[in-house]
Specification:
By secondary structure, this protein is α+β, with helices and mostly antiparallel strands. Helices cover 31% and strands 27% of the residues. An 8-stranded mixed sheet has the order 4-5-6-7-3-2-1-8, with helices on one face.
Length: 153
């Protein structure tokens, strides 16, 4: 495991630290990194973030009207992510699938599409395709064990 000094952390891009954190499978304190779904209450409904154990965001959801539909979506994501293939430009996959794409700012994102082709999880930005792809592989491997945590207002 690579540990970063305070000076290094200051100059290393946030997503790069998250990437190394996920690759090593541990957080900076040495614990297990299975991640978690953090359900957040908003004025317009509920949404959730998929976070690593350090609280760094990996991906986010749409807004849901009730806690029941929000938790149902998380269960659906767990079921889809574990069997979804990664769609590459030269290999088109059936749903469910992860799509990796480059945005207009040159950053990479992934999205998970359900069997009905609806986007059910959308990642935050990554600097390189490789970081984004590696995160998808780790999400596929570990998401099934990620607990649901309701954030208090």
């Amino acid at each position: 495991m690579r540990y970063f000094s305070r000076l290094e952390k200051r100059y290393i891009d946030y997503q790069t630290i998250l990437f190394y954190n996920l690759i090593e499978g541990t957080n900076f304190q040495g614990g297990s990194n299975m991640g978690r779904f953090v359900i957040r209450y908003k004025d317009t409904g509920l949404d959730f973030e998929l976070q690593d154990n350090e609280g760094h965001p990996i991906a986010t959801s749409q807004t849901y009207a009730s806690i029941v539909t929000c938790k149902r979506a998380i269960r659906s994501i767990k079921a889809c992510a574990s069997v979804a293939q990664i769609e590459y430009q030269d290999h088109i996959c059936k749903h469910p699938k992860f799509e990796i794409y480059k945005n207009e700012n040159g950053k990479y994102h992934f999205r998970l599409k359900a069997k009905n082709a609806q986007v059910i999880l959308l990642s935050f930005a990554y600097e390189t395709y490789e970081e984004c792809e590696q995160t998808v592989l780790l999400v596929k491997q570990h998401i099934i064990n990620a607990p649901m945590i309701e954030e208090n207002n």
